[in-house]
Amino acid sequence: MGETVLYTTVCCENTPKGDGSFVPLQVNYQERFSAAGRTSGSYLKREGRPKDDDVLVARLVDRPLRPMFDKGWSNDTQVLQWVLSYDGVNQPEPLAITAAAAALMVSDIPLKKAVAGVRVALLGEGLWVVNPTAVQMAASRLDLVMAGTKDAVLMIEGFCDFLSEEQMIEAVGVGERAISKMCAEMEEWAAKVGKPKRTDRVLLPAGLEERVIALTRDAVEAAYRAPTAKDVRTAAVEAARLAMVAAIEASGDFPGVTDVQLQMAFKAAESSVMRGLVLREGTRADGRGVTDVRPITSRAALLPRTHGSALFTRGETQALCVATLGTAADAQRIDGIRSAASDSLAGDSDSESSGPGAAAGRAKDAFETFYLQYFFPPSSVGETGRVGPAGRRELGHGELAQRALEAVIPSKDDFPYTVRVESTITESNGSSSMASVCGGCLAMLDAGVPLKEPVAGIAMGLILEPDGSFK
């Protein structure tokens, strides 16, 4: 796109290795300094592990592709992407999504439909721009990255400067129309040059799913209806699964059936029960209605020696947030290729872009004076696990919460301090990133940060009928 060049490959193992219950997909994306005519400022000049921004783009690529693989695909699949040339004008994120999908479409790896990605910007009050330049993004009131197929939206991620609901709906429509055209052309291209698709998938024996549903429906439905804690419900569902496995093995009706196939069938049965309760009765797990919010409690100023602190609890999800103020020396340095090739965006490290889209075109060696760091220890879900550098999920959730709060941070003229927010998840039963938004806002208010407005976050889901229809 322009003089921005992205190298993309996809490969998969020849034999299935996973258990069929998830897609073993790995996306690796990296922006090389040489793409913008630069060399890394670190002691080691060779690119090492991907930077945080690289990981965030890899997650953007992964998210819309994962649900488009054929059910039962369990061959390890890897997408590799490197930015080889960056012109400082055309941003690589939507290009990365489209390039990965295009590579999959012409390969022998089974992908259901073509997928494409776009970025949408809003200039002024009503000028919508698809795949804007870096200069346009710096002035945009909206930074929206979308991905989808010819007839549906798969992913929406972005942030904005106090746009109305009508404007956001219009933005999604602008992106959806552009994506549809790109996907139609990609499908025509793949039909001409693509390879025949592989068929080695984990499949269920005829009649197994129906038998499993019949054996487990009542017990699973009772577990979902009961207004109990997550651990109690999980134990009841697991008991139903074990009873089903014993019954199938005792019947001898499915000789040679594997544990993987039984697990896949049980997952389908559990999904069927949950979908039925939600769509036909408006009841969720634990007995709540579809619009009911879990009980919320919050407390500020609970840590005596921090600048600001807050404990935010929503049901069985809890975030302990701390806000720390500092000088310019405490700002987070961003060393990357963005805008290094564009004189129009280059500037000193103290320059401040005007719109939410500025993050898409950060100046060379820019500094963030507000940043949020999210920590998700394994103890938050009652498990043991790795503790160390932030993982991909932690980086993604931290960026999500940071973007939600950025728009209300005061300008440097009004508040010349660096603000660091830490969110440690102490227990989790979903929506911990949005708990970080709420707790982070409270912690900054406790620290005396003059926010423009208070911000709250909430997560939502959409459940459809098996045929994709919505009631």
Structure write-up:
This protein is of the alpha+beta class and 471 residues long. It has nine helices and 14 strands. The chain has helices at residues 52-65, 92-106, 134-139, 165-193, 208-225, 230-251, 259-281, 392-406, 432-446, and strands at residues 5-12, 25-31, 77-85, 116-123, 127-130, 142-148, 153-160, 296-300, 308-314, 317-326, 332-334, 366-368, 370-375, 418-427. The strands form four sheets. The protein has a five-stranded mixed sheet with strand order 8-9-10-14-13. A hairpin with a 3-residue loop joins strand 4 and strand 5. It is globular. Residues 341-360 are annotated as: Disordered.
CATH architecture tag of the largest domain: 2-Layer Sandwich
Mean pLDDT: 89
Number of helices: 9
| CATH C-level category of the largest domain | Alpha Beta
Low-confidence stretches: 341-354, 361-365
Name of the CATH homologous superfamily of the largest domain: GHMP Kinase, N-terminal domain
Gyration radius (Cα, Å) is: 24 Å
Overall form: globular
Note the beta-strand portion: 15-25%
Count of strand segments: 14
**SSE pattern:** EEHEHEEHEEHHHHEEEEEEHEH
Order of neighbouring strands in the sheet with most strands? 8-9-10-14-13
**Percentage of helical residues?**
25-40%
